[in-house]
Write a structure and sequence with these properties.
Elements lengths: L1 E7 L3 H4 L6 H17 L3 E7 L18 H6 L20 E5 L10 H7 L2 E9 L1 H14 L3 E10 L3 H11 L5 E3 L1 H7 L3
Parallel strand pairs: 1-2, 1-4, 2-3, 4-5, 5-6
Helix pairs in contact: 2-7
């Protein structure tokens, strides 16, 4: 079995919301990508996007039911493309999800199982969104989990802190990108 680095929701429109914090997050995710690629780990990019007209969005879904939001998350909208600083390479998988968790409404589990992956390293925006939802579901699917706390961010720094210091350690190893990269050389 093997490891996979998940780069979740690092798409143009979401990264842009980080403002002056974007450079640090992009640098940390970039360092994780470099290490994963150098050591032959599978790299899987995950983005959230909807078909034209957003038929996947129920009016009952509070998070996604805003028509402005659904239009900004169209599959072909430049805002839903992976940020160019982290561009996928040939052979790296891009999964499109239709909900908050990387597993919900996507073929991520099928892809990971076909690659023989049993351990996930998570990066993503937002900590309280895709990272939390994916962590919970991945743990229920029996994946071993590592979360790179400085390769994740949230609009609320206190929520990020509580999740990475108190909630995630119950189901995952939580480390910095530098600590994770250094482990390859020890």
């Amino acid at each position: 079995m093997s490891d996979a680095l998940l780069v979740m929701d690092m798409q143009v429109g979401i990264v842009d919301r980080l403002g002056d914090r974007a450079d640090d997050i992009l640098a940390n995710v970039g360092a994780a990508l470099s290490a994963a690629r150098e050591h032959g780990l599978a790299v899987v990019f995950v983005r959230v996007a909807f078909r034209d007209g957003a038929p996947e969005i129920s009016s009952n879904n509070k998070a996604f039911s805003s028509s402005a939001l659904s239009q900004s998350l169209g599959e072909t909208n430049p805002a839903t493309q992976i940020h160019p600083a982290l561009a996928p390479r040939d052979g790296e998988v891009l999964v499109t999800k239709r909900r908050v968790s990387a597993f919900a409404g996507s073929d991520l589990d099928v892809v990971l199982r076909s690659l023989g992956v049993d351990s996930l390293i998570l990066t993503g925006l937002a900590t309280s969104g895709v990272v939390l939802s994916t962590t919970r579901q991945a743990a229920d699917l029996d994946f071993r989990l590592t979360i790179l706390r400085d390769a994740c961010a949230d609009a609320d720094d206190e929520v990020h802190r509580v999740l990475t210091e108190k909630v995630f350690p119950r189901q995952a190893t939580v480390v910095t990108t530098a600590e994770w990269v250094a482990a390859f050389h020890s």
